[in-house]
Model the fold of this input.
Amino acid sequence: MSEPYGTSKVILSGGGPQIVTGVDWYKEGNTRDPMPLSSLIYLVLTRALLHNVQDHKDVYLQTTCLATLANLAPYIRNLHPTPASKLVR
Done:
């Protein structure tokens, strides 16, 4: 039985990183490989920030995304190649 479009799975391990598989709804970069949940959150938040800066200029959204990224920073380990390339651009 096939899964509906946009279905992702999170693999929870005992104390290890949460791995997300099947991220086919994010079209920028190679996200079909399994990646840590923190890498996916980083991708989504940076995309929201860039879209906000270019189009909407909503100060509240920008502040919230930056604060969330700052809180997430100590927990990012084994960054997936797609968000790593966006980090250095």
Summary: The radius of gyration is 14 Å. Residues 43 and 83 are 6 Å apart (CA to CA).
